[in-house]
Amino acid sequence: MERHGSESYFVIGEGLVGQSLGGRGGTLAAAVEAAAPPFRFSRMGPSGITPQLGAATRRKIAQSMTAGGGAASAVPAGFTYLGQFVDHDLTFDKTKVTLGQSVSPADLLQARSPSLDLDSLYGAGPSDPGSARFYEADGIHLNTGRTLAFEETPAMDGFDLPRGAGSTVARKRKAIIPDPRNDENLAVAQTHLAMIRFHNRIVDTLPTSVPPAQRFATARDKVIRHYQWMLRTDYLPRICAPGVVNDVFTNGRKAFEVGVLATDVPTMPIEFSVAAFRLGHSMIRREYSWNVVFDDGTATLDALFTFAAGSGNLGGERRLQSIWIADFRRLYDFSEADRADLTVPEAKFNRARRIDTSLVNALARLPGLPAGEDNLALRNLTRATMVRLASGQQMAKFLRNRGVTVSNLTSAQIRDGRNGADLNALTQPQRTALVKNTPLWFYVLREAEFNAGRLKGVGARIVAETFHRAIEGSRVSIVRDPTWRPSLGPNKETFRMVDLLLFAFNGKKALLNPLGT
Question: What is the reported pTM?
Answer without folding.
Answer: 0.93
